[in-house]
Design a protein that fits this description.
Layout (H helix, E strand, L loop, with lengths): L3 E7 L14 E10 L2 E11 L4 E5 L6 H9 L6 E7 L4 E4 L11 H12 L12 H14 L12 H14 L4 E5 L7 H13 L3 E5 L3 H7 L2 E6 L2 E5 L6 H15 L4 H7 L1 H33 L18 E12 L2 E12 L3 E5 L6 H8 L7 E6 L5 E4 L12 H5 L6 E4 L2 E4 H7 L16 H13 L5 E5 L7 H13 L3 E5 L3 H7 L2 E5 L5 E5 L2 H7 L39 H28 L4 H4 L1 H38 L1
Parallel strand pairs: 1-5, 4-8, 4-9, 6-7, 7-8, 13-19, 13-20, 15-18, 18-19
Antiparallel strand pairs: 2-3, 2-5, 9-10, 11-12, 11-14, 16-17, 20-21
Helix pairs in contact: 2-4, 3-4, 7-9, 9-14, 17-19
């Protein structure tokens, strides 16, 4: 195949407002093949200033490849890449290349030199502004610039790569799975940095909450083409479901092919939306039960006084346990009582002692003081954060069925191995394939299938979401939703915790662990960040409570009246129409801006509509936020009547 590549550099505009400029990067009619199969066909995409885009799509659809095309590190077989002159593009790959002998400061500085090609021969000291900014960010994230990369953990390496990406103050930031291996404080720091970033951002991530907080538009890479939704990730499921339904109706003759091609979309969007309503209601009911348990008299940090209750209902009862290493308290005077059916999440910074707490509660490590009692007939299943190793030479069938039979016992019930593999999104043809041919996401699904088949009434999951794609995360959530036993899970995935757990144990420093009813978002409503990272308006003041110690602390703070004010109700009535009008105007403007020749043909008109587009976007963001906040207030007041 002939390599026909066209790269254009457009002149940087002078004397105009930032919004009055052609797109930063445009991909036009891109064609790319891998292994003889087309990955992209006639794909067209443009990235404009101030864009906040999330890029979603099933595994293998080419998301990371598309970022490389945007960055210019990969060439297409055919097509055109147009870059505005003078802009800088910074890319965080999923697996950055690092030399173990290089220091953090050297690694970040080398990235600055690559971003500033005209300064390649100057020393780091000549980059005073950049050097100061790098030092500030290293201090913010808790890294020492003189440490060797080879001595860093996975999370620390990811932090160093992020600092390198941000340090050059690029015009376009491309982030591929930026939250991988980060703990919650680091993810929250990253969210703040992205919000403060003045350029455009395109991000690939499996972290639903990260995408929901930061995206203003969604790019869906589906079968080699890009579909764009001018709304953030929170609107993706409904939009994708609508598109797929329309497509299925229009192409009945290809129904089987479409079902195969969009299997992930169907299972991850349509089925999830329909099934999750009942599951969410059940989860909310369980959270309310846990909240009431925490408020009962005689409770010590979630521990009820024993009153002759049948021990079979008690899973674990820990009283005043403590554990220290080298005189540093990891767990201090902690008490909890886990009952059958509880689903408890554990969160805290990396290295603070989450895994230690699990080991102490399970009896694998002895506490320095305190008592632990386990329930009768306890059958735990443990999934550690490093995963059990898979034999690459065994088939998927042999991995699940050691005896070579065609059935596997799944939590005490016989299942055909192929049917069980289909539950975990494998095709029948893969059953006899060796493990070595699986992708990383497929290997993770196989490990989960093997682990979750074990008969148990108590699941202990240590970072089960690490390295899982969004498809597998949804599958794991569904499996846990149907699990009837008790769950204890360590995770940094906030959306996963919100959708699974009934209460959350939070490491708050110096060995102190506090239990909050609900998931991560419930905890944050009670304990907001010191430096707020949320994008909400000031319509609702957050509670100043530090614990769920009373009935009033179990619900968000509400206004003194039991209904919306006249002004709030009036806003709630008119905002939907105003938002719809702004959405329509935004689409019309963007249709005009998609004309690549407009800037050269009529720069004054381009300037006018670009300025108007920026104003519409800002107004739309404000009004949508007000609408959502007022709706939340109204629903809360109705529930509390």
């Amino acid at each position: 195949m002939h390599n026909v590549i066209s790269l254009k550099i457009l002149p940087r505009t002078q004397g105009l407002h930032d919004s009055v400029a052609p797109p930063l990067v445009t991909l036009k009619d891109i064609f790319l093949t891998f292994g003889g199969q087309p990955l992209f066909e006639n794909l067209t995409l443009y990235i404009s200033e101030r864009d906040r885009l999330c890029l979603v799509g099933r595994n293998g659809s080419g998301k990371s490849t598309l970022l490389k095309l945007l960055a210019g590190s990969l060439e297409s077989d055919r097509g055109e890449r147009v870059v505005r002159g003078g802009i800088r593009i910074s890319c965080l790959p999923q697996d950055p290349e690092m030399s173990s002998e290089e220091t953090i400061e050297q690694y970040v500085t080398r990235g600055l030199f690559q971003d500033h090609q005209d300064h390649q021969n100057q020393g780091f000291q000549d980059q005073g502004h950049d050097g100061f900014r790098v030092a500030m960010m290293l201090d913010e994230i808790g890294l020492e610039g003189g440490r060797l990369l080879g001595s860093l953990s996975g999370g620390e390496k990811r932090k160093a790569a992020l600092i390198r990406a941000f340090a050059g103050e690029a015009d376009l930031l491309l982030l591929d799975e930026p939250t991988n291996h980060l703990d919650l404080p680091a993810i929250e720091w990253l969210e703040q940095k992205v919000r403060e970033f003045k350029g455009a951002v395109v991000v690939i991530s499996h972290d639903r909450m990260f995408l929901t907080h930061l995206s203003q538009a969604t790019l869906w890479l589906d079968r080699g083409q890009i579909r764009r939704l001018d709304k953030g990730f929170s609107a993706f499921d409904d939009w994708a479901e609508t598109l797929l339904t329309q497509e299925e109706g229009e192409t009945r003759k290809l129904e089987k092919l479409i079902a195969e091609e969009t299997r992930w979309s169907r299972q991850g969007i349509s089925a999830r939306r329909k099934r999750n309503q009942g599951r969410l209601r059940r989860l909310y009911a369980l959270r309310q039960q846990r909240s009431e348990q925490l408020k009962q008299p005689g409770t010590v940090r979630g521990l009820e006084a024993q009153s002759g209750e049948s021990s079979s209902r008690v899973v674990i009862e820990a009283r005043h346990i403590s554990k220290s290493f080298a005189e540093t308290p990891v767990v201090k005077d902690f008490s909890i009582r886990l009952l059958r059916g509880d689903r408890v999440g554990i969160i805290g910074p990396n290295g603070i002692g989450k895994t230690t707490l699990l080991r102490v509660l399970m009896g694998e490590m002895k506490a320095d003081s305190g008592k632990i009692r386990w329930g009768l007939n306890l059958r735990p299943t443990y999934l550690d954060q490093h995963r059990a190793s898979l034999d690459p030479d065994r088939t998927l069938w042999e991995t699940l069925c050691d005896t070579g039979a065609d059935q596997i016992m799944v939590r005490g019930e016989p299942r055909h191995v192929v049917g069980y593999l289909k539950d975990f999104l494998f095709e029948e043809s893969q059953a006899r394939s060796p493990v070595r041919v699986l992708s990383g996401g497929e290997k993770n699904r196989l490990v989960l299938a093997k682990t979750l088949a074990k008969e148990s009434n108590f699941l202990i999951l240590d970072e089960p979401t690490n390295d899982l794609d969004m498809e597998t995360l949804d599958l794991l959530q569904e499996v846990l939703d149907d699990y009837e036993g008790t769950i204890l899970v360590v995770s940094h995935d906030r959306s996963f915790l919100d959708r699974v757990v009934t209460s959350t144990l939070v490491f708050e420093g110096e060995g102190k662990i506090t239990e909050y009813a609900g998931g991560y978002s419930d905890y944050r409503r009670l304990r907001p960040l010191p430096s707020p990272i949320k994008t909400r308006d000031r319509l609702v003041a957050e509670p100043d409570k530090s614990r769920l110690s009373s009935k009033s602390a179990s619900k968000p703070q509400r206004s003194q009246s039991q209904r919306l004010s006249y002004h709030q109700q009036r806003l709630l009535d008119v905002l939907p129409q105003e938002v719809a009008q702004l959405e329509e105007e935004k689409k019309q403007i963007e249709r005009e801006l998609s004309d690549q020749e407009m800037f050269s043909r009529d720069p004054e008109h381009f300037k006018r509509i670009s300025t108007r587009h920026a104003h519409v976007m800002e107004t739309l963001t404000v009004k949508e936020t007000q609408w959502l906040e007022l709706t939340e207030i109204k629903e809360t007041l109705e529930q509390e009547k």
